[in-house]
Amino acid sequence: MLRDPNPATGTRWADRFMDAYFTALELNPAVHDGAVGIGRIDFTAPYTVEAWSLRLFPSPGEINTEANRGSAFNSCLAMSSVAGVDRLYLVTAGQLMCFERGTWWSID
To answer: What's this model's pTM, rounded to 2 decimal places?
Structure first.
């Protein structure tokens, strides 16, 4: 989604991501309403922040959902089945969930 001001991208996922996230929220609190795009150019490259506050639109036919879980959960679950998507994480109600290839688990 369009954000103005739009936080900077390019931060490495493994290097101070949470600092970058909190800086982005300070710059524009609306960033919390959407996914953070983390990507890499190939399997040997590091993951970097590519975009803030994205909407997820999985391909039709890739939809996998669970009842009573909400749109953020089900968007992550469905998007995790899309080719080229490595993994999604959802932070909600103090819980961290990981989604990969149409399955999910909690991370303690």
So the answer is: 0.77
For residue 45, tell me if it sits in a domain. yes
- Domains contained in the chain, number: 1
Beta bridge partners of 48: 12, 39
Beta-carbon contacts of residue 1 (< 8 Å; ≥ 6 apart): 30, 33, 34, 53, 54, 55
User: Is residue 81, in this structure, part of any structural domain at all?
Assistant: no
In a domain, 32, yes or no: yes
Angle CA 86–88–91, to nearest 5: 160
Digit-coded pLDDT (tens) for 12-68 = 988 888 888 899 999 999 988 888 889 999 989 999 999 998 888 887 776 778 999
53: left (phi over 0), alpha (psi -120 to 50) or beta: left
